[in-house]
Write a structure and sequence with these properties.
single chain; alpha+beta; Immunoglobulin-like; 2 domains
Length: 463
């Protein structure tokens, strides 16, 4: 019987220390301080960042956004996509190796594993040994720590949608709602499964980025590379041995670069889609080169052109400003400037106009023609505001229902506004739809308009 699938062997990644490892841990701390800490920040007597789905308000520090502002989320996703294109064109999968949540949480879970079960050799020995009280206690301690971290991650995630202090009180009193409980457990389970068990399988098989990254690479993209000309032929030797006399390269075939790789690949085989660009192999190889008394950089960040043509660092870095990178940078800069400018100039008022569904138009007392509109006013500021609703482009129209409307901070309200015209004006207009504009003015002291919002609509004149 022939199996179509190869059994996946567990990867025991070796601990490594070095310059790139320090940078990776700095980003682990930075990203998690932002993720875990942001829900606890307060702003104007409320949570600083809160996506209140129940009331359809999204608070981001001084910003109050409504579902009608969904365009900003779209713009933000486009900016993130172009930023990813730019980073990939310049430095390959640098996002995957340093800031991707899968890599970050895997790093955290592996650290917990090392603290409880020991280094690589001890973990391998522990897994091969028969079950005992010691092994059982270590496994229970490890998984308990993993589950605690995963549940705290799920709790923090839900804290962006339910005020985290309120959520904490609900947890203590066992009063969590069904959806809150579901998402805490679901997000915690996903973190526990992905970072604790699946790890490199997510990067290799589940993440689509691993499959299409090659179309964003070119021969001037910085990737983690093994210098085959310098390292081959490889072979083990003592520190005092002369590599040239033995006909060997600088690689001593210690396989430490394979042992520290979180995806279990051999970087000496060249560029592989499984490589997430974490640079752990660079750090451990540099350590070996220091011990052997040979120059660092046998494994290093380099481009395919620099490896083939023997370029130095200056020539390699000069190719960063190539057309593809400049185009990505230009587009990204325009998008960021437009996004920030639009967000900064966004008026603190949103208006929606809907015609009355009961009747398009009706004739009331003394032959006046009346149209009724439902106007939604959304105060996008955190202070009390006053508004006045009127019309434009409609001759001698009278408006009632929108003289002086007061809204509290971040309050939204529907109001009924009736617009009337006299029989004489209606006769001159004829039957049908007449273009008009609903005008909403934000009032300041002395009833002076501060902000004008105009929404197009029509006035219907019956036959």
């Amino acid at each position: 019987m022939v199996s179509l699938y190869k059994k996946s062997e567990k990867i025991y990644a070796r601990e490594v220390k070095g310059w790139f490892t320090k940078w990776r841990w700095m980003l682990v701390w930075l990203t998690q301080l932002v993720f875990y800490g942001t829900p606890w920040l307060s702003w104007h007597d409320r949570q600083a960042v809160l996506f209140d789905l129940g009331s359809r308000r999204f608070y981001i520090f001084n910003l109050v956004l409504y579902p009608q502002d969904f365009i900003y989320l779209t713009a933000l996703l486009v900016i993130c996509a172009y930023a990813l294109f730019l980073f990939t064109a310049v430095a390959g999968r640098v996002w995957c190796g340093y800031a991707c949540p899968q890599s970050v949480y895997t790093e955290m879970f592996m650290w917990i594993e090392r603290q409880i079960e020991g280094d690589r050799a001890k973990r391998m020995k522990l897994d091969k040994s028969p079950w005992s009280v010691g092994k059982f206690s270590r496994k229970v301690a490890k998984h308990s720590a993993w589950i605690a971290l995963a549940l705290w991650t799920g709790y923090s995630f839900v804290g962006y949608f339910t005020p985290i202090r309120v959520l904490g009180a609900e947890v203590l009193t066992l009063g969590m709602g069904p959806w809150e409980l579901f998402w805490v457990l679901f997000y915690g389970f996903a973190t526990y499964g992905n970072a604790g068990f699946m790890r490199e399988q997510v990067c290799k098989y589940m993440c689509p980025y691993a499959r299409f990254q090659s179309v964003m690479f070119d021969r001037d993209t910085l990737i983690i590379s093994y210098d085959e000309k310098r390292g081959e032929p490889r072979g083990s030797r003592s520190r005092k041995a002369d590599a040239q006399a033995l006909g060997q390269g600088d690689c001593i075939d210690c396989t430490l670069c394979v042992q520290v790789c979180p995806t279990g690949i051999d970087i000496r085989k060249g560029l592989q889609y499984e490589c997430i660009g974490c640079a752990a192999c660079i750090d451990v190889c540099d350590t070996v080169m220091d011990k052997m008394g040979t120059p660092r950089g046998l494994i290093r960040y380099a481009t395919q052109n620099s490896m083939d043509k023997g370029w130095g660092r200056a020539e390699m870095l000069a190719r960063i400003t190539r057309p593809r990178v400049l185009i990505y940078t230009g587009i990204l800069s325009v998008l960021v400037v437009a996004f920030v400018s639009s967000l900064y100039s966004r008026p603190p008022l949103r208006v929606d106009v809907v015609r009355d569904r009961g009747a398009l138009a009706r004739v009331v007392d003394e032959g006046f023609v009346e149209n009724v509109y439902r106007v939604q006013l959304m105060n996008a500021s955190e202070s009390v505001q006053r508004y006045r609703v009127g019309v434009e482009q409609l001759t001698q129209a009278s408006v009632s229902g929108g003289d002086d409307v007061t809204l509290g901070p971040a309050e939204s309200r529907w109001i009924a506004v009736s617009v009337r015209i006299s029989p004489e004006v209606a006769a001159r207009m004829g039957s049908g739809a007449v273009a008009m504009t609903i005008l909403v003015e934000q009032l300041r002291q002395g009833d002076q308009p501060q902000i004008d919002i105009r929404e197009k609509s029509t006035f219907m004149v019956p036959r």
